[in-house]
Design brief:
- This protein folds into two domains: about 140 residues, Rossmann fold; about 130 residues, Rossmann fold (3-Layer(aba) Sandwich).
- About 50% of the residues lie in helices and about 15% in strands.
- The chain contains 14 helices and eight strands.
- Strands 2-1-3-4 form a four-stranded parallel beta sheet, sandwiched between helices. Strands 6-5-7-8 form a four-stranded parallel beta sheet, sandwiched between helices.
- Helix 7 links the parallel strand 3 and strand 4.
- Helix 11 runs parallel beside helix 12.
Length: about 350
């Protein structure tokens, strides 16, 4: 009987444990140096979800042509955005984690939810965070990848990383996996609020460029819904803002390699727009939940130079939702919608807060 009482103890603790909320994002190197970029890029570019090339061929390309040279070039870019507190992506992600924890505590009471953060690549890892969840005896986990538009290279990759670690556990927790929110009304409302704040301060641009991270066109042709989800986000946001078709344009950035990627390309369109009579643009990146290298350096710096050198007169980048109150309120609502009803202390909707 003593043995049974002892082995039952973890189950009793699980009944009292908080529901774990696991936020996920892509990841970041630990430092803006070539030595730190090399293992990060190796892990990232070795993921078959990211690069769908025959493994043996890609192994040769990666080790002979990419890893010897790209880390040094990438390190120079990271140095331009690095802060005293480290990587902007990790810093903002930690702020989102803390703000969401405060929001859930305020609504449900302390101890009902515990918010964690894991990265697909680099640290904090899924392995580390799932170990922390096990220590707390949480047997109910809400997994929230912070990729609004589902994509195999991001959302599915997070699922792969999660399942890889769960395969090592004897006791697998109950899961809610949120695989995207590209058309969620509260997400669109948060984007709209962010843009209206900018328009009120800086004026409405001649054209709003809505830029998403690109993927190879072949992924779309094989059935990945990412492109369609991006287009729907743009359409819903434009409708919410009352924009006509001439007042906004969806584009795709950050292509890599020689194959065709989703078009139109952001940098090419920014180079063309001044010749077409568009001299004033604002750029938003709703596919990113937190600012990172692709927004702070590529969009805010590189593409700004491209547009102005091509004859543009006014260019501004509108930051991601980051830790803005509307964004955190939305994430809290998303957690509640996908929560475990038997553990909720309050049945009050979050819609009143978000609306």
């Amino acid at each position: 009987m003593a043995y049974l009482a002892e082995t039952a103890n973890p189950h009793q603790k699980a009944a009292q444990a908080p529901i774990a909320v696991l936020l996920c994002n892509l990841g970041t190197p630990e430092a803006p140096t070539a030595s730190a970029l090399r293992p990060y890029l190796k892990q990232f570019l070795s993921d078959p979800r990211v690069v769908e090339v025959p493994r043996l061929l890609w192994w040769v390309i990666l080790r002979l042509f990419i890893l010897p040279f790209r880390p040094r070039a990438s390190a120079k870019l990271y140095k331009q955005i690095w802060t005293e507190n480290g990587s902007p992506l990790l810093k903002i992600s930690r702020q989102q984690q803390s703000a969401l924890q405060d929001r859930l505590d305020a609504h449900f009471g302390a101890g009902q939810y515990q918010v964690h953060l894991a990265m697909n690549y680099g640290k904090p890892s899924f392995s580390d965070e799932l170990a922390e969840i096990r220590k707390q005896f949480s047997d109910q986990v809400i997994v929230l990848p912070l990729y609004p538009q589902y994509c195999g290279a991001t959302t599915a990759s997070a699922f792969d990383a999660l399942s890889k670690e769960l395969r090592k556990q004897r006791w697998v927790p109950s899961l809610r996996f949120i695989n995207g929110y590209h058309d969620h009304p509260f997400y669109i409302a948060a984007l709209k609020a962010s843009l209206l704040k900018d328009f009120e301060k800086n004026g409405q641009p001649q054209k709003l460029i809505i830029s998403y991270h690109g993927t190879p066109k072949s992924y779309l042709e094989k059935g990945d819904p990412y492109y369609c989800f991006c287009m729907k986000t743009s359409r819903l946001l434009a409708e919410a803002l009352g924009l006509s078709g001439e007042q906004y344009e969806s584009c795709f950035q950050s292509r890599f390699g020689k194959q065709e990627w989703l078009q139109p390309y952001t940098d090419i369109r920014l180079e063309q727009l001044p010749e077409e009579g568009t001299k004033d643009v604002a750029v938003i990146c709703p596919g990113f939940s937190a600012d990172c290298l692709e927004t702070l350096e590529e969009i805010a710096v590189e593409n700004r130079d491209t547009f102005l050198h091509a004859g543009g007169e006014s260019y501004r980048y509108i930051p991601c939702l980051n830790q803005e109150a509307e964004h955190i309120n939305f994430l809290a609502a998303l957690v509640q919608e996908n929560g475990f009803s038997e553990r909720r202390k309050s049945q009050n909707t979050m819609a009143v807060v978000v609306a």
